[in-house]
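#struct-help
A.M.: can someone run this one for me? Single chain, 150 residues.
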Amino acid sequence: MKNLLNRRWVVGLGVLILTAASYAQWSNPADDVPAYHPSAPLKVSALPPILSGARLTGENFRYPWQVHVYQQAIRIGNVLYQLPCNCRCDRALGHTSLRSCYEGLHGTECSTCAKEALLAYAQTKAGKTPAQIRAAIARHEYEKIDLDRQ
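D.P.: on it. Structure tokens below:
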């Protein structure tokens, strides 16, 4: 009986170690990049729409910056499609790019997504390419943005 209990402990411990080792957060290298598309979508009409208009009201849009970010996201949807999101919503929510955050309500509740979209809008207006904006996101330049000043 004691031998059987010891074997169960060893097997259980082995399963625990394998599970922990295979967990994506620990097994991915530090330079792992969140999901994004390397080029603009071929057909924008095939993508889910970014929330707009009357859909930017209600309890999820309590702060002015939330509406402002979605309004800017609409203007640069193709750029957002080509950008990663550092909140790692690709893992948690299955998002395929920063644009995915604005096809639903995630952009209202995540300051990382909001700041990245605001950075993307400003840099797009300054003539930066999506590749240059990706590099700025990788450098965490969005962290300097104050949402309350939007």
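A.M.: thanks! The chain has two domains: 1-32, 33-149.
D.P.: also worth noting: The two ends are 67 Å apart (CA to CA).
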